[in-house]
C-alpha cells in the first residue's frame, strides 16, 4: 500500500517549529557524512525559461530515502499559477518499496522556510525584531513563518516588484496570527525594506541584486534562498565579500549558487569564504556569528535532505492522524 498525501494533509501534519527541528537534524547528518545526496539534476525547459530539478537523498542515521521532482516556471504567475510545483516520493529504506507520494509544493515552501528558521536561530542576533522579505510569493510567506518561529519579530517589511503580489502578501500574512505580527508594511523601494531590517530573506528569481550593500545596517542576518543557478544573484557581491557566509552544502553551492559563484569568479572571494556548512554550526563544530556587528549570510540552494527528512515526519504524523488516501499500486 502507498499513502497519497495532499497539500491540505501536509499542512495538517507538521508545524513550522517541528520542521525547523527536523531540518536542523538533517543538516547535521549531511555535514557529518551520514547522508548521500547527489548534486541535483537540472533539466532546462528554455521555451518557458523553466527548469525541472530531480533531487534524491538517503539519510543513513534516520533511514530516510526518497526523491523530489520540482518544477520552477517563472512565467506561471502571469497565468495565475504557482511558480513552483513539486512531488515527493518516500521509499522504505529497508526494502526500497514506495511508501508515499506527497504534494511537494507546500512541503518545499515549508522545508525552505524551516532552513531559514534554522539559520536564523543559529546566526541572527538574539535581539532581532525587524524582518524584510524580498519576494511576495509562497516562498516569501514560508520565510516569514520560519523566521518568526525562532525570533520575536515585531515589524515586517515586504518588497516585490509586483505591487499586487505584495498587497496579497500583506492581506494574508497580517491575519495569520500566531507568532507572525499584524504589522506588515509594503516597502516602496528595496532601500526602505532593507535599511532597518535585522533579518533579510530573499526569495526571488532575480538575476541582479535585490538590495544595495550600502543599505544594510550593522549586524544584519541574511537568508538567501532564491538564487539557484550560475546566473541568478540576489545578494550584492560586496555584501558577500564582507559577510560571514554559511551554506547549506559546500559542493551544491559551488555548483549552483550564483550569489557565491559570481563574486568567486570576480576574484572577490575564495572558496574558503564559504567553507562552513550550517550543519557544522548546528553541531558546534564551527562557529556561526562571532560578534554583534557582523553581517551573517546563509546561502541555500536547497538540499534533498530537507525534503526527505520532513517527508518522513509528515508520513509518520499522517499515519497517526489517519491523513491521506491509501492505494494499492
Describe the structure.
The mean pLDDT is 95. The longest helix is centred in the middle third of the chain and has 20 residues, at 104-123. Strand 4 and strand 5 (64-72) form a beta hairpin. This protein folds into two domains: 2-107 and 305-327, 2-Layer Sandwich (ornithine cyclodeaminase, domain 1), CATH 3.30.1780.10; 125-301, Rossmann fold. The protein has 329 residues and is of the alpha/beta class. It has eleven helices and 15 strands. The radius of gyration is 19 Å and the shape is globular. 35% of the residues lie in helices and 23% in strands.
Number of structural domains: 2
Mean pLDDT: 95
Assembly form of the protein:
single chain
**Count of DSSP helices?**
11
The proportion of residues forming helix, as a percent range, comes to 25-40%
**CATH class membership of the largest domain:** Alpha Beta
Shape, principal axes of CA atoms: globular
SSE pattern, N- to C-terminal:
EHHEEEEEEHEHEHEHEEHEHHHEHE
CATH architecture of the largest domain: 3-Layer(aba) Sandwich
State the distance separating the first and last CA atoms: 7 Å
Biggest pleated sheet? 8 strands, mixed
- Rg (CA only): 19 Å
Task: Classify the beta-strand content into a percent band.
Answer: 15-25%
Task: Look at the helices and sheets and give the structural class.
Answer: alpha/beta
Can you count the beta strands?
15
CATH fold category name of the largest domain: Rossmann fold
Q: For the record, what is the CATH homologous superfamily label of the largest domain?
A: NAD(P)-binding Rossmann-like Domain
Unreliable stretches: none
Amino acid at each position: 500500500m502507498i499513502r497519497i498525501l495532499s497539500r491540505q494533509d501536509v499542512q495538517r501534519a507538521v508545524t513550522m517549529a517541528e520542521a525547523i527541528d527536523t531540518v536542523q537534524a538533517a543538516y547535521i547528518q549531511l555535514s557529518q557524512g551520514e547522508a548521500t545526496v547527489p548534486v541535483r539534476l537540472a533539466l532546462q525547459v528554455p521555451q518557458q525559461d523553466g527548469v525541472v530539478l530531480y533531487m534524491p537523498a538517503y539519510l543513513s542515521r534516520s533511514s530516510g530515502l526518497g526523491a523530489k521532482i520540482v518544477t520552477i516556471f517563472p512565467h506561471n504567475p502571469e497565468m495565475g499559477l504557482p511558480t513552483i510545483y513539486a512531488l515527493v516520493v518516500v521509499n522504505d529504506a529497508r526494502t526500497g518499496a514506495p511508501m508515499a507520494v506527497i504534494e511537494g509544493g507546500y512541503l518545499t515552501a515549508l522545508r525552505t522556510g524551516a532552513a531559514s528558521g534554522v539559520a536564523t536561530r543559529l546566526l541572527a542576533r538574539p535581539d532581532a525584531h525587524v524582518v524584510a522579505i524580498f519576494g511576495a510569493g509562497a516562498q516569501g510567506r514560508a520565510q516569514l513563518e520560519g523566521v518568526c518561529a525562532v525570533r520575536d519579530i515585531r515589524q515586517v517589511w515586504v518588497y516585490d516588484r509586483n505591487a499586487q503580489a505584495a498587497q496579497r502578501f500583506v492581506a494574508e500574512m497580517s491575519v495569520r496570527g500566531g507568532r507572525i505580527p499584524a504589522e506588515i508594511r509594503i516597502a516602496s523601494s528595496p532601500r526602505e525594506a532593507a535599511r532597518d531590517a535585522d533579518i533579510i530573506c530573499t526569495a526571488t528569481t532575480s538575476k541582479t541584486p535585490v538590495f544595495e550593500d550600502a543599505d544594510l545596517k550593522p549586524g544584519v542576518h541574511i537568508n538567501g534562498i532564491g538564487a539557484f543557478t550560475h546566473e541568478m544573484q540576489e545578494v550584492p557581491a560586496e555584501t558577500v565579500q564582507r559577510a560571514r557566509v554559511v551554506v547549506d552544502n559546500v559542493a551544491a553551492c559551488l555548483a549552483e549558487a550564483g550569489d557565491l559563484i559570481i563574486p568567486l569568479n570576480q576574484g572577490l572571494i575564495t572558496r574558503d569564504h564559504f567553507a562552513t556548512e550550517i550543519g557544522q554550526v548546528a553541531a558546534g563544530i564551527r562557529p556561526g556569528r562571532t560578534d554583534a556587528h557582523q553581517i551573517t549570510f546563509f546561502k541555500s540552494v536547497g538540499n534533498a535532505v530537507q525534503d526527505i527528512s520532513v517527508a518522513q515526519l509528515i508520513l509518520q504524523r499522517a499515519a497517526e492522524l489517519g491523513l491521506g488516501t491509501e492505494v494499492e499500486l
